[in-house]
Amino acid sequence: MATSENSGGATLRHAFGNVLTFFILPLIGVLAFSIRLFSVIKYESVIHEFDPYFNYRVTQYLTKNGIYDFWNWFDDRTWYPLGRVIGGTVYPGLTLTAGSIWWLLNSLNIPLSVETVCVFTAPIFSANAAWATYLLTKEVRGTGAGLTAAALLAMVPSYISRSVAGSYDNEAVAIFALIFTFYLYVKTLNTGSLFYATLNSLAYFYMVCSWGGYTFIINLIPMHVLLCIVTGRYSSRLYIAYAPLVVLGTLLASLVPVVGFNAVMTSEHFASFLVFIIIHVVALVYYIKGLLSPKMFKVAVTLVVSIGMIICSSVIAVLVALVASSPTKGWSGRSLSLLDPTYASKYIPIIASVSEHQPPTWPSYFMDINVLAFLVPAGIVACFLPLSDASSFVVLYIVTSVYFSGVMVRLMLVLAPAASIISGISLSEAFDVFARSIKFQPPRIPENSHSGAGDATSGKDTIKNGAAKLEKQSGTDKNEDSFKERPSKKNRKKEKEPVEKATIKSQIEKKLLVLPLETSVIAIFLLVILGAFYVVHCVWAAAEAYSAPSIVLTSRSHDGLHVFDDFREAYAWLRHNTDVDDKVASWWDYGYQTTAMANRTVIVDNNTWNNTHIATVGTAMSSPEKAAWEIFHSLDVKYVLVVFGGFVGYPSDDINKFLWMVRIGGGVFPHIREPDYLRDGQYRIDSQATSTMLNCLMYKLSYYRFVETDGKGFDRVRGTEIGKKYFELSHFEEAFTTHHWMVRIYKLKAPKNRVRGKTKKSKASSKGSTATSSKRAGRRKKNPWH
């Protein structure tokens, strides 16, 4: 009778937990979606940053012209005069996802614009990422940890920074694909199901379509497989989880045009192939072990290992030969920057010039993951109690993501899911301990006149009674399991009594090791306060730090809120006041926005695939006015756009980026030297600046007529008066300057008409004039970039 009551109570608790989970998960999804809407509520529904404008433009083309035209689209409005094949150089996952959502909504007679769908794609997939985190953490440590991890990820600022409404970038869908791929891998690892292994390959394919960070997956999973093999945790489930992923996943990845044969030819993928060979050797060894006697097994292992070593040596030799034939050893520039943080600054300044490729500071960890940074160590310890294949994978995930986030601030985004999972496990375990301490609190011993040995005896009796009760309860639980499994009598006889006693003893010790009631209550209260602090910080970060679109800026002062809409003002002027075929030159940061919002052809943009082309623009900006005009004129440029923040105090302007233009330009054209622009090693724009700096095109286009604003020419960003205040432009003319002087557009003056010289009658003079004209022609034909 008691057994049936206990079984009914357990069933009721299990059903109640499922119902509660069913209601909590949608609330977590709503939280993840709604906390990212501050940008729309406070500002407007607009695309953010720079790269999202290119993605938005590509999505518009896809929805208008169809999938086949998208794959074959040659964009002649970028990288003039080279152009760009969009279908073969873009990760199509984000575009195809948003385009499919738009098509589905319009099929259901919900007429949303493409821009609206693009704005809300990231918040939608943040909810999906939270649910995927729940599934992954549940596979590792149960439902409670899964719900906690999902709630933490829904609000973590590092993920919010890349998934607010309007942040239409690849990471918007890639983080969901990353977590979901890891979930299916762990699910396959726990179940050994080939069905989940196939789904894992498809999820990996979606990740490859979405983001270049897929190389993190195809290196992390082999590392975990190798770790399991080395630590003696090989099983058939591990083989099923890994082998189909490498074979099917690699075949699917090669179908993505931007990846193609890189899936088998670049060094980022070689680790997966090497581990693929190793796991087959190990599987063969285990298979032979089951067939042969121990003596014959030793001989067979020697033979198999010898053959395996020969094969592995041959494969490694081929790989080394392929890698050695590449100048970068088969690695991409960004991958080498992750392995060697100093590589980009030494050899590829275009990568080092991007702010999100810089290493983070310590305060940025507290800003982006907040209290999770303190919960991660406790979560790692909890993963070892006990250690399983799934928990070891999570530990490896957090260790590698911490390293990569320390190299590149952009990869704080990869750290966010790992920190949320580990912190969810630590919080769940902590609440479990404290709640169990309250629930199984031993009865208080009444105070009496007895002391000393009598108190000790009574305490021992109490513990014995509790142990007897718990042993009885464990016996009841054992009876419940027997009713469920119904083992045969033979199997019951085969069960070992010491194992049963050890299990019962461990359960008793676990339930008897309780903390004092006051300690447990205080600890739970402090955890709730910690969670409240985390929620407040995340809401502040979402509302204030990460909601403002970079294209519309705001500032507060004593006289209220000021809105700076200069970027859209400048792009609108270009769109309405220039010819459709006019070419616009600017630094590569503004290429995507210029093409998408002004619909004008640009010389370089944010794709940064051609370092020489970018160096050409950097050389023009670093050169004197006449030499710069010759470079731009040779590229058929009609207008030059510069961003200037000295008037309003906008720090991310072209003057602050100018040294990167010098470095990138000097890397290709040696006559541009950085020391020529520095005074005693310092970058200055005041009266102490070098003549090269004061006469370069960037300085003139930024500070032309600037002294007219206040009579002094005081730069609010640099905090000083400019060195050269009064000058005129000889080869450029000011076409438009926005209201707050943040964007300035100049037009190239037309070349002067040629004046023919007088005809000489004498033969000698004709020879002289011919020689002179040939010299002039030689000067004209001289490459203006040198």
UniProtKB/TrEMBL annotation:
Pfam families: STT3, STT3-PglB_core. It comes from the Eukaryota. Residues 752-764, 776-786 have a biased composition (Basic residues). GO terms for molecular function: dolichyl-diphosphooligosaccharide-protein glycotransferase activity; metal ion binding. Pathway: Protein modification; protein glycosylation. Residues 581-640 form the STT3/PglB/AglB core domain. It comes from Nelumbo nucifera. The keyword Transferase applies. Residues 19-422 form the Oligosaccharyl transferase STT3 N-terminal domain. Component of the oligosaccharyltransferase (OST) complex. This is dolichyl-diphosphooligosaccharide--protein glycotransferase. It is found in: Endoplasmic reticulum membrane. Keywords: Endoplasmic reticulum, Glycoprotein, Glycosyltransferase, Magnesium, Manganese, Membrane, Metal-binding, Transferase, Transmembrane, Transmembrane helix. The chain crosses the membrane at residues 20-41, 85-105, 117-136, 142-160, 172-197, 203-227, 239-264, 270-288, 300-324, 369-387, 394-412, 512-536. InterPro entries: Oligo_trans_STT3 (IPR003674), STT3-PglB_core (IPR048999), STT3_N (IPR048307). It catalyses: a di-trans,poly-cis-dolichyl diphosphooligosaccharide + L-asparaginyl-[protein] = N(4)-(oligosaccharide-(1->4)-N-acetyl-beta-D-glucosaminyl-(1->4)-N-acetyl-beta-D-glucosaminyl)-L-asparaginyl-[protein] + a di-trans,poly-cis-dolichyl diphosphate + H(+). It is a multi-pass membrane protein. PANTHER family: DOLICHYL-DIPHOSPHOOLIGOSACCHARIDE--PROTEIN GLYCOSYLTRANSFERASE SUBUNIT (PTHR13872), DOLICHYL-DIPHOSPHOOLIGOSACCHARIDE--PROTEIN GLYCOSYLTRANSFERASE SUBUNIT STT3A (PTHR13872:SF48). GO terms for cellular component: endoplasmic reticulum membrane. Residues 765-775 have a biased composition (Low complexity). Its EC number is 2.4.99.18. Residues 469-500, 752-786 are annotated as: Disordered. Belongs to the STT3 family. Its cofactor is Mg(2+); Mn(2+).
